[in-house]
Amino acid sequence: MATVSLCMIVKNEEDVLGRCLASAAPAVDEIVIVDTGSTDRTLEIARQYTRAVYTFPWIDDFSAARNFSFSKATMDYCFWLDADDVLLKADCQALIALKKNLSPDVDMVMMRYHVAFDGHGKPTFSYYRERLVRRAAGFRWEGAVHEAIAPRGKVLYSEIAVTHQKLRPSDPDRNLRIYEKLLRDGAALAPRDQFYYARELSDHGRNDEAAQILTQLLRAGDGWIENLLEACRLLSKCRARLGDEDGALRALLHSLTLAPPRAELCCDLGNWFLEHKEYATAAFWYETALSRPRADQSGGFTQPDCYGYIPALQLCLCAYYQGDINGAIAWNERAAQYKPDSAACLYNRAFFRRKAK
Fold first, then answer.
1. pTM (two decimals)
2. Residue range 187-197, pLDDT digits in tens
3. CA-based torsion, 249, 252, 258, 262: positive or negative
């Protein structure tokens, strides 16, 4: 049976660390905690679960801290979590079962990461992450921010999920500070870092700067295809915020030159045409979204609602604005098949009943 070291980096996580460790402890054989400067009860809580508690000076580099945590592991595989992550009971049991059956030649196990949820706790935004890696393979984290390990060797995809349960917002300026410090120090940002730097700029309302970086990134065409596809979507939002509606559309259409459209992009295109009252064209893109297969194992960000609920609900609007009440009712019921308790679907039903009277 494979053995697993849980490796974590933490700082001031007293409100969530115990919850995280309690959820994962039954599935792991060793817990390694690396603290980067806590001033609360984080260290005290960590020592309740393990003696392998270390300190590492924070140097504005997440990869450096994570690589240090991996260097202290002694088991067959390294497994990482953030302090505000949990393993739900079913996922914990699934990880225990995986350990029993995991072939020793597997280098990496990709697991789902659920990071956003609807009112019923159903994931609305998720993606695969490199979650379990063979220690002897010598994997290294890369990137000062939004750090990652490049997949290689024999990779296994698992339906085990890590659930992100944030209780409080993190420092909203931290990542931007790190990127700008790197630039001041003369560092050249890799394509992946360019994308995430642009995203930080956009989140801080600096859409013109973000658009310039994204445009340069897409013009160069370097980097991971999933980042480039997301760059098109983000560039479209930046240009729309800057009042450049045609530029927003061009950014979305550019993604069609990179790969077949994902449902998320189709919904973006549908939204653009819906906002511009071009209902027939909007309907085309929403219907296309319904026909697109999910590509979860691509590693890109997946919004499950874009593959059913959202396009169906938007098609209800398109039909209504085109005077097709029966079609609108049918599309609303189609959306309700995906989310029976949807407030929007219930509202639409009541609306159509009032119109029928």
1. 0.92
2. 999 999 999 99
3. negative
